[in-house]
Design a protein that fits this description.
Blueprint (H helix, E strand, L loop, with lengths): L3 H44 L7 H25 L2 H7 L4 H21 L6 H10 L2 H8 L1
Helix pairs in contact: 4-5
């Protein structure tokens, strides 16, 4: 039989763990609920003809040309300081090196595949920066 003090400590730990698990669960549920509500809103807006068939391309254009750059600018202005940039400088060596190597490989691929002169830039950027925004935004 364990001393009563040890049992109380074990109960307290399990209550804390239970609260943490519940917190994670509620955060997950709330994230899913937001997505479901946005999908439902889109369905209702389309059902009642508040948006047309071209809305998908229009909203995509608004997001990529206005909202995304504004979001990035705001976050950078708010969170990036000289001291944080200096502290990150040693950690940025490998990502920068990876991008440079990617451009070198892309340039070699342009020569190997004999990409036309007018399409080289888009080919190189598609090769090197294809998923940059999908990886970078969650990090911000």
């Amino acid at each position: 039989m364990l001393p009563s003090g040890h049992q109380n400590t074990k109960i307290i730990k399990s209550k804390k763990e239970g609260k943490q698990i519940m917190s994670v669960f509620l955060t997950s549920v709330s994230s899913v609920v937001v997505i479901v509500l946005i999908v439902a809103l889109g369905y209702l807006l389309k059902k009642y003809n508040w948006v047309g068939d071209s809305f998908g391309s229009e909203i995509s254009s608004i997001i990529t040309k206005i909202a995304l750059p504004a979001s990035i600018f705001t976050v950078v202005m708010k969170n990036l300081t000289r001291s944080s940039l200096i502290s990150l400088s040693t950690e940025l060596v490998f990502p920068v090196l990876g991008v440079v190597i990617g451009y070198v490989i892309a340039w070699i691929m342009v020569k190997v595949f004999k990409i036309k002169r007018g399409r080289r830039g888009i080919f190189i950027n598609a090769f090197v920066n294809a998923n940059t925004i999908f990886i970078g935004m969650p990090l911000i």
